[in-house]
Amino acid sequence: MTTYVLKTLWRHRTRTLLTVTGAAVAMFVFCFVGSVQEGLHRLTTGADADRSLIVFQESRFCPTSSRLPEDYSRKIKEVAGVREVMPIQVWTNNCRASLDIVVFQGADPEQIRRTRPLTLTEGDWQTFSSQRDAAIVGRNVAQRRGLKKGDQFSIGEISVNVTGIFESSVPSEENLIYTSLAFLQYTRGLDAAGLVTQHEVRLTDDADPDRVASEIDAVLRSGPVATRTRRKGAFQASTLSDLVDLIGFAHWLGYACVGLVLSLVATTTVMSVQDRIKEYAVLQTIGVRPLRAMRLVLAESTILCVAGGISGTLLALAALEIGGFAIGAEGATISFQPSLALAVTGTLVSVFVGLAAGIAPAVQAASVPIVNALRQA
Amino acid sequence: MALVELRGVCKSFRKGDETITPLDHIDLDIDAGEFVSLMGPSGTGKSTLLNLVSGIDRPDAGTITVAGTEVTKLSRSKLADWRAANLGYIFQTHNLIPVLTAYENVELPTLLLKLTSTERRQRVELALEAVGLSDRADHYPRQLSGGQEQRVGIARAIVAHPQVVVADEPTGSLDTETSEQVQTLLQRLNKELDITMLMVTHDSDVAAIASRQLVLDRGKFLEQSGTTPTRKAEGDEMIKQFG
């Protein structure tokens, strides 16, 4: 009977191919939307998002407008519950939402090495620490911009020497370029000597993040610039608030894709069953049970959907892997990454949609009035 | 006891405001190994009777028993199982599955039975051999002539070794020469394999190959063992007319 199902699909290969292609395109979009949502989720949750704080200038959003004294780090370190403070100068080529945002973070190389989950795939830390204009570039940025070790990379007022490429277990890190703090502070046009964009605070294991954040703001209230301190996850969600709304809305696009696949496969299967209603009557006349006739139709719709779904999912995963896509705003980036969860979701959705799409035509095939159907020309 | 027993079988259809009763309290016995042909004018219920015996249609009243199973009592699923094991159906228009080869078409009914793959292959090969199409096993229906298609249809009907084979106008769509080949084949299968057959036909020459000929008219049999001589005479006359 499997032969019958496969040969039936092959008989109308143009229709089959078009349906599979349609399902593949829809599942491609579904997985892409899913990867954006996964990226946002990764960015705003997890240990790093909850156990780190970002001290930013009050009422400022774009990194270029937050200018905190570098020596705030000394005062922050004195607050109970603070394990380590890393002053960071941020530079971005675009404060608005962009698909090709380039974000530089300047910090002490030794601190970067110690606190960030980075693995250099090209270059070494020693060169990065010793050269003034050295930069290590995240894998995704390198992929998008075609950068490799030894390249000179210039954007705006900044010109760096790529001394390494890194990978990270935190996908959004792979969209960053790290330089030394001093290099960014003294870049022409930034005018940021002695100033930083933000201080990143790492907490002790027993510290309450919200209490520490309040205390930091209270301590710095007497300083020249007022601050607002938030958990890193909340800070990033707030920074990307416009995008968060957009991404929240995009999940409807994902559902729409599922609906599209459902209607496409259901239409094809209904057409296929209606074309062959006499065939189903013949099958039942020779002894095929109605339930078996149903299973044949369900197999047909599921094969169509799974073939399209898996193709679309694999294409999406490949595109995400190769493309190194990211969307960012105001110095924060959301990385679009392929994942096992995405592959499993795409496959399961395809199976369920395939089964759902086949239900109505399967019932039709199983309940066909045999005598009437046999009389059809 | 007859292999096929119909008792008081009635079947009516609504056609607009009119009620048509093609079968009106029909009784019929067919013994094992018998070859019965059924003739009659269009719309007299020949095919309806065939469909009722096959269990693909249900009577309004009466009982149909085939090989001891009262098919009128079976559910749709049970009927399908019963047909798979006990009934072969030869269609007028062959009704082969176009995407399957001759071999695969003949194999279909055996897939519904509990057989090993070896048993299945042997049965299919024997059935194709019986209809003289072993050399066409890999051909698709579109690659076969009308007569060859019908022979594949016949092989499909006998491959499961059914108790009864019903044939609805098996030569209706064939030319004279091919029709004669199919008639010879049906006769041979009945005699050599002892297959019980019930065949509907419009053609008295085709009907003549059967061991018993019945004529159905206005819901009743005109010629049948045990009917009145007058009705028998009417039946003989009608057979002549068809001839």
From TrEMBL, chain A:
It is a multi-pass membrane protein. Residues 257-368 form the ABC3 transporter permease C-terminal domain. It comes from the Bacteria. Keywords: ATP-binding, Cell membrane, Hydrolase, Membrane, Nucleotide-binding, Transmembrane, Transmembrane helix. It is found in: Cell membrane. The chain crosses the membrane at residues 16-36, 252-273, 294-320, 340-360. Its EC number is 3.6.3.-. GO terms for molecular function: ATP binding; hydrolase activity. Residues 16-218 form the MacB-like periplasmic core domain. InterPro entries: ABC-4/HrtB_transporter (IPR051125), ABC3_permease_C (IPR003838), MacB_PCD (IPR025857). This is Macrolide export ATP-binding/permease protein MacB. It comes from Stieleria magnilauensis. The gene is macB_5.
TrEMBL record, chain B:
It comes from the Bacteria. GO terms for molecular function: ATP binding. The keyword Transferase does not apply. Residues 4-243 form the ABC transporter domain. It comes from Stieleria magnilauensis. InterPro entries: AAA+_ATPase, ABC_transporter-like_ATP-bd, ABC_transpr_LolD-like, MacB-like_ATP-bd, P-loop_NTPase. This is ABC transporter ATP-binding protein YtrE. CDD domains: ABC_MJ0796_LolCDE_FtsE. The keyword Acetylation does not apply. Keywords: ATP-binding, Nucleotide-binding, Transport.
